[in-house]
Specification:
The protein has 16 helices and two strands. It has helices at residues 13-36, 40-46, 51-79, 81-101, 105-133, 139-164, 169-190, 210-222, 240-269, 274-299, 304-321, 328-342, 345-354, 362-390, 393-413, 423-431; strands spanning 229-230, 236-237. The radius of gyration is 21 Å and the shape is globular.
């Protein structure tokens, strides 16, 4: 029987090294990328960009991600995960260097778009790697570590950027490029170089994927709601379960976009200082990062339907309550409370995704859900600012309602989905050597 660490990373050495390398690469990339954000609008204004151009530059990151994440995911299914992760890191580094050496509106748009392509590629291919290379019973904690590393970087990066300040932005751009290149080292050392096989396992006997392949065959063909099925030609077709995951990611994107556009405005309206604003992001990101691995462990063992719907419901409640609070102290405290309640949602949803899609299509699936999240983030960020001008309550209330509707949609789509780890999944994990 395989050994596992309680509430920890995968116990098998190969899986643990893989998760740690991807998490390290994610931290380096996201620290470098998020350190740029606090001062980037001011930097652009100082170099002659008007507010409209600043908005276009910031939006180009999301637009480029939306356009490329799904194709990049499909590419990773064909050529393997490692080339896509490495390519994404290098593209992000190129965009960062471009910011350091060239100024002007159009170069800024192009370089910010390159950063979006690079970061999106790394996110999609890293998640697909875990979905195909980590044992099913250990994926929850692995996904928790991956997404927790993003939040940990977001807790550190903006603080570093704020300390460096607007006058040192050229050094921040170069540092982001160096961090991205450094992130390639653990990927080169650990992530498998081979591509994902696209030939389906034979119908007779045990699938070529071993017990995990058998589990996918049984789940894919036998679930009443359809976890997805391998139809004629054995091509994966989206199912209600897969659609539910898309809805979950879109809902989290709506929340992210609303906060990106309106959170600082709300805090300022409540007379918060710049330090208070930065602290609020840290107070959310740190608990989220600390609890991500235990949350993933829980998602591997509890009913994922309840975890996802409960997480989204928690986020919707906090989103609706924030504009009603007039105390900065309460706003700061509620940030931490929300992180504790919402951290389990994404790992649980991604686990549903890994059991929805055959291994040979994991990249395309991860690209699809990340595209949904990025598009929703861009849409919410674009609309929330205008709604805030009408009334500070309106954007938060609108997004909260949308998330509640999403909860209902997920509950309906997943009504026949096995939420808890099935006996066959447990046997898959137990049969693998530690």
């Amino acid at each position: 029987m395989s050994r596992r660490h309680l509430f920890g990373l995968p116990a098998s050495r190969q899986s643990r090294r893989l998760v740690l390398s991807l998490s390290a690469a994610t931290i380096l990339l996201w620290v470098g990328g998020s350190a740029i954000l606090p001062m980037l609008p001011t930097y652009l204004r100082r170099h002659g960009s008007d507010p409209a151009i600043v908005g276009i530059v910031m939006a180009s990151y999301f637009a480029a991600s939306v356009v490329t994440q799904y194709p990049v995911g499909r590419l990773s299914d064909r050529v393997g995960r490692r080339p896509v992760v490495l390519g994404g890191l290098l593209v992000f580094a190129a965009g960062s260097v471009g910011f350091a050496v060239l100024t002007g509106a159009f170069p800024a748009i192009a370089f910010r778009a390159l950063q979006g392509v690079g970061a999106g590629s790394v996110t999609v291919a890293s998640a697909a790697t875990i979905g195909t290379e980590v044992d099913p019973a250990e994926r929850g904690a692995a996904f928790g570590a991956l997404y927790g590393s993003q939040m940990l970087a977001l807790a550190v990066g903006p603080l570093v950027g704020s300390i460096a300040g607007e006058q040192r932005m050229d050094l921040l751009f170069l540092a982001a490029a160096v961090a991205s290149v450094a992130a390639a080292l653990p990927v080169l050392a650990v992530v498998p170089r081979v591509g994902v096989p696209r030939v389906a396992p034979p119908l007779g006997g045990l699938p070529s994927g071993g017990l995990e392949g058998l589990e996918l065959e049984m789940l894919a063909s036998g679930a009443p709601a359809g976890l997805g099925h391998l139809a004629e030609g054995r091509r994966f077709r989206p199912s209600p379960a897969f659609t539910g995951v898309l809805v979950v990611f879109a809902a989290t994107g709506l929340l992210a976009g609303a906060y990106e556009a309106c959170w600082t405005l709300l805090m300022t309206l409540r007379h918060a200082t710049s330090f208070d604003v930065g602290l609020s992001w840290t107070l959310f990101a740190l608990p989220f990062a600390v609890l991500s691995v235990p949350a993933g462990w829980l998602a591997s063992r509890a009913d994922r339907r309840l975890l996802v719907i409960g997480s989204l419901g928690c986020s919707a409640v906090f989103c609706a309550v924030y504009p009603l609070l007039h105390s900065v102290v309460l706003l700061l405290a509620f940030c931490s409370f929300e992180a504790v309640g919402s951290v389990v949602g994404t790992p649980a949803a991604v686990l549903v995704l890994t059991r929805t899609v055959p291994a040979r299509s994991q990249g395309a699936a991860q690209g699809s859900v990340e595209t949904a999240r990025t598009a929703a983030t861009a849409l919410a960020a674009a609309g929330s600012g205008a709604l805030f001008g009408i009334d500070p309550v309106v954007p938060f209330a609108a997004v909260a309602v949308a998330v509640v509707v999403s909860c209902a949609g997920v509950a309906w789509a997943w009504r026949a989905l096995p939420g808890e780890v099935s006996g066959i999944a447990a046997r898959v994990g137990a049969a693998r050597p530690g």
